[in-house]
Amino acid sequence: MIRVSLEDEFGRTVSGVRVSLTDRCNFDCVYCHNEGLGDTRGPRAPADDELAADEVIRILEVLSEFDVERVKFTGGEPMLRTDLEEIVAGVPEGMTPSLTTNGSFLPGRAADLAAAGLERVNISQDAMDPETFANLTKSGAYERVLEGVDAALEAGLTPLKLNVVVFEATAEHVPEMVDHVAESDGLQLQLIEYMPEIAGHPEWAIDVDRVHEWLETRADRIERRDMHDRRRYHVSATGESDSTGMVEIVDPVGNPSFCANCGRIRVTHDGRFKGCLNRADAHSMGDLSRSEIRRAFRAVVATRVPYYGEYLIERDGEWVMNDEYDSPINPPEADS
Ligand SMILES: Nc1nc2c(ncn2[C@@H]2O[C@H](COP(=O)(O)OP(=O)(O)OP(=O)(O)O)[C@@H](O)[C@H]2O)c(=O)[nH]1
Ligand SMILES: C[S@@+](CC[C@H](N)C(=O)[O-])C[C@H]1O[C@@H](n2cnc3c(N)ncnc32)[C@H](O)[C@@H]1O
Ligand code: SF4
Ligand code: SF4
């Protein structure tokens, strides 16, 4: 098959897709932006508006015609989908599947997911103690998540990134999480800047530059990824051990270099394309026939623009909507 990749007007080739398989979740994290899908609604039977497994696979097959090389399954909580293994097994050849999950359903399923072809997994674990974890997630599943991490490591779903959202409630736990990954084989740490744009509570945000500065003093080596211009810090264990770990910072907020290198599009649980996590506008895939999926993909790529630096522009130190775009940005969600 001849594959033709698509570039947006800003020269950004679309090489990855994030698929939200559901907007449901069994946790209720205080910071949750839910990938811009609105409130998570609690665990309940699959909703009628969720894409079926064969529809997800058809979308991925079409995207692979356009040389999209990576798919990330996310949510809500993607492991609430009991057909996740079937979906992973249907990912077309040449496309690498990975998963971002809260980890609570990994015990007992990690091996099956690996057998289905899942390459690796990112697990949200914001702290090392059950109390902080419970306060943040409104869930008592701390031990279960740790078991999930072990199950994923055992199944070879590595490198395994632990995701920590950095904001006022987690900042003090960052050093122990850094030590933890430095000491543990197969674990990496991803520090995600709290995004108030879609979660609200701008007062919870902390200055991520302080975390960069601290890591510069803690790291032996620093590298920059082309993708999103992300910085990676290689750190050593502090005790007797000579093991090392890697810490990556995901800092999109007010960061035009992050958006300038963004090659990702999104598929929502109800079958629409979004060109940017932060934008409210989405493109329907109509009847989900291959031709409609192709049409919608071309349409969303044609309207993709870097969010910071283009969709929003800086005026007097504030990020304001560029008058060229008339669709509103996502209004902040209420507590979610
Ligand atoms: N604004 C924005 N945020 C992102 C983007 N990619 C990741 N994030 C943030 O990082 C969170 C965690 O995403 P993951 O899927 O675990 O991480 P990732 O870095 O995208 O995944 P890998 O690089 O595949 O490990 C997302 O839910 C977002 O909050 C992006 O392109 N734009
Ligand atoms: C919305 S969750 C969906 C997948 C899964 N339920 C999980 O928690 O990993 C995806 C990622 O978004 C991150 N996240 C959620 N709300 C955020 C916010 N307001 N700012 C930054 N990252 C956020 C979470 O930590 C998680 O790593
Ligand atoms: S961040 Fe928390 S509440 Fe949001 S989808 Fe993931 S586990 Fe659920
Ligand atoms: S905020 Fe920037 S990096 Fe994130 S999806 Fe939008 S354009 Fe891409």
TrEMBL record:
Name of the encoding gene? moaA
- Main EC class of this protein? lyase
Residues engaged in binding S-adenosyl-L-methionine: 31, 76, 124
The molecule here is called Probable GTP 3',8-cyclase
Task: State what this protein does.
Answer: Catalyzes the cyclization of GTP to (8S)-3',8-cyclo-7,8-dihydroguanosine 5'-triphosphate.
> Which UniProt key words apply to this protein?
4Fe-4S, GTP-binding, Iron, Iron-sulfur, Lyase, Metal-binding, Molybdenum cofactor biosynthesis, Nucleotide-binding, S-adenosyl-L-methionine
Instruction: Please give the catalytic activity noted in the UniProt record.
Output: GTP + AH2 + S-adenosyl-L-methionine = (8S)-3',8-cyclo-7,8-dihydroguanosine 5'-triphosphate + 5'-deoxyadenosine + L-methionine + A + H(+)
Please name the Gene3D superfamilies in this protein's record: Aldolase class I
User: Which source organism?
Assistant: Halovivax asiaticus JCM 14624
Q: What is its EC number?
A: 4.1.99.22
Q: Which family does it belong to?
A: Belongs to the radical SAM superfamily. MoaA family.
Mention one GO biological process in which this protein takes part, according to its record: Mo-molybdopterin cofactor biosynthetic process
